[in-house]
Records
---
Amino acid sequence: MNPTPGIDFSAADLVRNLLLAPTVLVLDVDQQTEFYRHTWLEPIELKGSLLVSKSCYGSITDLLLAFVKEKGEHEHVSQLEETMMEIRKKFPKAKGEPDEGKAYAKFYSVSVIMQS
């Protein structure tokens, strides 16, 4: 649930939800909390925020894009990424405006490859 309705989720929010959603089906609430803490909060959100503040990255989204770029070009393009590319053709972002959807779609495509 978005605690700030009317404000779009960031790519970091969407990636967090992608990583954590499967735990709802198999873990109890305490285990989900522990998984969240060890898989997202400590290694990504807390350390990522520190890295962002001490580097050229402007946000966790920028950090995610750097991660995807480091993984290199991949042959797999998910349906989600194709859809985002079509949306961006029709509705381009303003110069300098972060593209949260693109960041999420690229991360999703890479995660599909990593899970294979």
---
Amino acid sequence: MYTMADLKSESCDTIGGASKNCKPCEKKGKKIKVWRGRALETAGGLDKKKLTRNKRGKIVSLKKSRNAKKNTWIQAVQMARKDMKIKGFQPVTGELYEKAKSYHDKMKK
């Protein structure tokens, strides 16, 4: 059991998670601390409500993640790959590029 003196002397990261007096994480790449509740917000001002995991498991900004999923060029390339029955790695050149470009132009209108 910790005494009040111990709690006051230790940083908020080491004992009991984030507290109201806890400062934002000043270092880059510390979104994991906010995600686990050991800090209140990142240096950029993101709290846990504004963070999410991507498909690789990395913690990223929720707003940026949603905006990236709405990218029309990526959606056009996916549709072109599906039409051409391409699986695996394929550079976006030649026929694939032309088909993706046509889908992208249709999406813009």
